[in-house]
UniProtKB/TrEMBL annotation:
EC number of this enzyme: 3.1.21.10
Name the UniProt record assigns to this protein: Crossover junction endodeoxyribonuclease RuvC
Record-linked NCBIfam families: ruvC
Reactions performed catalytically: Endonucleolytic cleavage at a junction such as a reciprocal single-stranded crossover between two homologous DNA duplexes (Holliday junction)
Subcellular localization, as worded in the UniProt entry: Cytoplasm
The protein's role, per its UniProt record: The RuvA-RuvB-RuvC complex processes Holliday junction (HJ) DNA during genetic recombination and DNA repair. Endonuclease that resolves HJ intermediates. Cleaves cruciform DNA by making single-stranded nicks across the HJ at symmetrical positions within the homologous arms, yielding a 5'-phosphate and a 3'-hydroxyl group; requires a central core of homology in the junction. The consensus cleavage sequence is 5'-(A/T)TT(C/G)-3'. Cleavage occurs on the 3'-side of the TT dinucleotide at the point of strand exchange.
CDD domains assigned to the protein according to its UniProt record, in alphabetical order: RuvC (cd16962)
GO molecular function term, any single one: hydrolase activity
Record-annotated active site: D11, E71, D143
Phylogenetic classification of the source organism: Bacteria, Pseudomonadati, Pseudomonadota, Alphaproteobacteria, Hyphomicrobiales
Cofactors named for this entry: Mg(2+)
Residues reported in the UniProt entry to bind Mg(2+) 1: D11, D143
Pfam families referenced in this protein's UniProt entry, alphabetically: RuvC (PF02075)
Length: 172
């Protein structure tokens, strides 16, 4: 008998880190919750990272997911912005790992392909398809919609034979 798996998707950002939680049972997906953890952009970097950490830790403690998925960092033209995004992403990976969750990583193109069918698309397309796939979904930002898309991507990938074999090998 299959069991329901609760997945948290995390879209890391220093200003706004989106999170979205779904439940997956076989091919069936159900919306649970979504939101955005915000940091004070006037605060020092260390304080902002603490705000993200504490906000995500609260969500994980409250919602009790079984697995986590985080969007991989992409490199843009601004090296400083990329470095700051990487630090926020570190928090997004640390918090679920410290809670004992397996953390999967997906590129932005893999997430888009899983949700909208192609590897390129804008935030409006992603939000629209998240609403199609999860009709009861509500989200307060594009970052939260992206986080739900990341969770959906993970739900699809965890069904693959390759993922199952890797999970079995990790348990051994």
């Amino acid at each position: 008998m299959k069991e329901t798996i609760r997945i948290i998707g995390i879209d890391p950002g220093l200003r706004r880190t989106g999170w979205g939680i779904i439940e997956s049972l076989g091919n069936s997906l159900r919306f649970v919750a979504a939101g955005t953890v915000r940091s004070d952009d006037k605060a020092a970097l260390a304080s902002r990272l603490c705000q993200l950490h504490d906000g995500l830790a609260d969500v994980i403690h409250r919602e009790m997911p079984h697995e986590a998925a985080v969007e991989a960092t992409f490199v843009n033209k601004d090296a400083t912005a990329t470095l700051k995004l990487g630090q926020a992403r570190g928090i997004a990976m640390l918090v679920p790992a410290r809670a004992g969750l397996a953390v999967a990583e997906y590129s932005p193109n893999a997430v888009k392909k899983a949700v909208i069918g192609v590897g390129h698309g804008d935030k409006k397309q992603i939000a629209m398809m998240v609403k199609v796939l999860l009709p009861k979904a509500g989200f307060d930002s594009a970052d939260a919609a992206d986080a739900l898309a990341i969770a959906i991507c993970h739900a699809h990938h965890r069904q693959s034979p390759a993922y199952r074999l890797a999970a079995l090998a990790a348990q051994a």
